[in-house]
TrEMBL record, chains A, B:
Keyword DNA-binding assigned: yes
Pfam families linked: TetR_N
Protein name: Transcriptional regulator, TetR family
UniProt GO MF annotations: DNA binding
Keyword vocabulary terms for this entry: DNA-binding
DNA-binding annotation, residue ranges on this chain: 38-57
Length: 222, 222
């Protein structure tokens, strides 16, 4: 190992420690809830020194936001291959609605954010908007998607619609109903006609399947 | 005056004092902002004793919410006669969008609530939902309005859509643009087709006119 590798190794070590802390935070949040978790709980679970936390995160809020961003990124990791398999952009809102509801509701960091609407909306916008802007641009240009008020209006409204629906899903416990509701609302917003919407929602039901239900709170919070 | 009138007179006096305090609170909020206003400011402006405030309101939050409710009720006082004049239920979302944006943005209590999304949504739901449920029920039943996900979904989503749009209007200062945007979003949600939407929004522009622009922040906050 020559000297030139050393900075890289330090970078890698730093990244590994950060991932260790983030991973530990998730376990602690699931076990105790975000509001009851302490920095000490997290560094204990990660088996690192207390001060190490602050080399990576300025505050508890910052690590909660980092966890939430991981969840939102996970949504696109789940959604992309399904969408490529389906090959039809109109399915994105349906598949996306199912995955995003299941992933976010399973994550205590996201549930914490539901109580802080502006933080929630900012986080969703930061991660989801660039992805959606890219994935939908062509379809908006050629008129397959006709978002009311234009594409930017849709990207801006999306996190608020999602927040309203997640909040209802958390209240009622019926995630499946609200992921379909969210899909229908999204399709209407995008100007997809009702008959096509019914078949798209049906198709997305088969594509996403029950497997992803393992992302639900019962499974991963246990 | 016989003894039987006395309780009524007390009730009337109590109501007058409450109105006096509410009126004074509005002036104070406009002059100093909600966050800087004190109970003392309000009782001074109303020329009542400090303790009188607490005969009517338990806290500052409670009087802010009461002021916000008055604003939301004002919306329906403005909207109802215009709608009767127009005689066409599809115009309700357009007229409503214009009036509600102008009234709410002009009211410091409502702007304060925009920072507290769940309070905002609750207040809008409490006052606006019963009114809308009544005004739109027949049109939903006979299919003139086809809200995606059903009428309750629309009533539930409405405050969130409004919040998102008001927030943008406050950011950009362009109330007119965002009241039309909100009207288009509402009409799409209600299943009105795009060509009709354009003519409805135009018609509502003439019906509401510039007069109501006096409700804007520049006019009433000065």
């Amino acid at each position: 190992m020559d000297k030139d590798e050393k900075p890289n190794r330090n970078v890698r070590r730093r990244r590994r420690t950060r991932e260790l802390i983030l991973h530990a935070a998730d376990s602690v949040f699931r076990a105790k809830g975000v509001d009851n978790a302490t920095v000490n709980d997290i560094t204990d679970a990660a088996d690192v020194a207390y001060g190490t936390f602050y080399n990576h995160f300025r505050s508890m809020d910052e690590i909660v936001e980092a966890r939430a961003e991981l969840s939102i990124q996970r949504v696109s990791e789940f959604t992309d291959p399904l969408l490529k398999h389906a090959g039809r952009v109109e399915l994105l809102p349906c598949i996306g609605a199912r995955i995003i509801m299941r992933v976010l509701i399973a994550d205590p960091a996201m549930r914490w954010m539901v109580e802080r609407p502006y933080v929630f909306v900012d986080e969703i916008s930061k991660v989801a908007a660039p992805m959606m802007r890219g994935a939908e641009a062509q379809a908006v240009a050629d008129g397959r998607l006709k978002p009311v008020g234009g594409h930017e209006c849709w990207l801006r409204m999306y996190p608020w619609l999602l927040l309203a629906e997640i909040q209802e899903a958390l209240k009622s416990g019926d995630i499946f109903f609200h992921e379909e509701q969210f899909a229908y609302v999204s399709l209407r917003f995008l100007g997809i006609d009702d008959a096509l919407a019914v078949s798209l929602v049906g198709e997305s039901r088969d594509l996403v399947g029950d497997a992803a239900l393992n992302l639900g709170p019962g499974a991963s919070a246990s």
